């Protein structure tokens, strides 16, 4: 088995990931073992990842990856006899075998088949992470593009879409996977998903926010120091903005057509006092509650339909102001994020 030099792969990987914490790789243990799924006896190349050997086909890899194509184009040792057939060559990779297996499942079928579906076959975080990281490293562009399309669909820059999300992360994700989403965005320079992904990180328990989480291959995934500092600073600011938004929205106002203005005013102030006792809501580190949550809290208060609708508009206007400021709160500059100048006006006094 002939080794192929892959120093240029390592150099490229280091150049690309200087701003992203590189997960610690699981130590190799014992002898190399053949992968049960991707071991073809007539394969022409072996990929050695961790303690696993994959035997596949050079032509398939080269078709999908310009990096592998360039590597395979290097001059190779000639056989001692023209009749002698060389055994398969080997490439040592520093990727995890779990990630490599996920990508091989995607690229061995016909090129450019859709592997990231919005419905009904939803991808896991582990699959998307493998597609993004290995796809980026080996220039398998369609894997990266489809992954980013999926992440952009959830981690949107559209306020109305985001405030109606019923979960911080896509299905089959855990909330702490937002850390990995941030690191993917950093790796592939996709800044548009950073504000919402980092905002979700701000909601994490301190244990996950600081320590991160373990990937399926045992490697650790955590925020860079810069992004951790961003979240720690932004978390307090977002809590303050949550309180300010609710107080401003509930400040005295008049709804055109309301026939019970005095009683509605008193009921709104009673509701505000009730919210003041719920620190999880009035000082939440994620200030983009859906109106559904507010509507539930207003049940039992004698507030007319017109005033409830006006309150809804005021709450959402306050939230939009925070949304438009989100990159600034996180210390980011995001091209294309809604401009503050386009923010809606909120009637009445504001803090």
Automatic annotation (TrEMBL):
Residues 41-107 form the BTB domain. Gene3D superfamilies: Potassium Channel Kv1.1, Chain A. This is BTB domain-containing protein. It comes from Lentinus tigrinus ALCF2SS1-6.
């Amino acid at each position: 088995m002939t080794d192929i030099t892959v120093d240029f792969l390592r150099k490229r990987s280091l150049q690309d990931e200087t701003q992203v914490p590189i997960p610690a790789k699981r130590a190799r243990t014992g002898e190399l073992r053949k992968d049960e799924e991707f071991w073809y006896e007539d394969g022409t190349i072996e990929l050695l990842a961790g303690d696993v050997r994959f035997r596949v086909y050079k032509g398939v890899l080269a078709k999908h990856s310009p990096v592998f194509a360039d590597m395979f184009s290097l001059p190779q040792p000639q056989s001692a006899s023209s009749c002698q057939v060389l055994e398969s060559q080997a490439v040592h990779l520093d990727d995890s075998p779990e990630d490599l297996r996920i990508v091989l499942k995607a690229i061995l079928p016909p090129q450019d088949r859709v592997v990231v579906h919005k419905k009904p076959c939803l991808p896991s975080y582990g699959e998307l992470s493998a597609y993004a990281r290995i796809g980026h490293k080996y220039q398998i562009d369609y894997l990266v593009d489809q992954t980013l399309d999926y992440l952009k669909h959830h981690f949107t820059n559209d306020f109305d879409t985001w405030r109606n999300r019923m979960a911080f992360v896509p299905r089959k994700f855990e909330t702490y996977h937002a850390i990995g989403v941030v690191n993917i965005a950093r790796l592939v320079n996709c800044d548009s998903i950073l504000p919402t992904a980092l905002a979700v990180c701000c909601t994490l328990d301190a244990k996950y926010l600081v320590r991160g989480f373990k990937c399926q291959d045992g490697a650790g995934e955590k925020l860079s120091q810069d992004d951790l500092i961003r979240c720690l600073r932004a978390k307090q600011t977002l809590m303050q903005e949550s309180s300010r938004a609710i107080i401003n929205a509930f400040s005295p106002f008049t709804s055109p057509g309301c026939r019970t203005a005095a009683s509605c005013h008193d009921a709104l102030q009673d509701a505000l006092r009730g919210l003041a006792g719920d620190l999880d809501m009035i000082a939440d580190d994620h200030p983009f509650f859906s109106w559904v949550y507010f509507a539930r809290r207003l049940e039992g208060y004698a507030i007319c339909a017109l005033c409830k609708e006006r309150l809804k508009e005021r709450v959402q206007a306050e939230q939009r102001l925070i949304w438009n400021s989100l990159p600034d709160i996180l210390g980011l500059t995001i091209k294309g994020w809604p401009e503050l100048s386009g923010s809606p006006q909120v009637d009445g006094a504001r803090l």
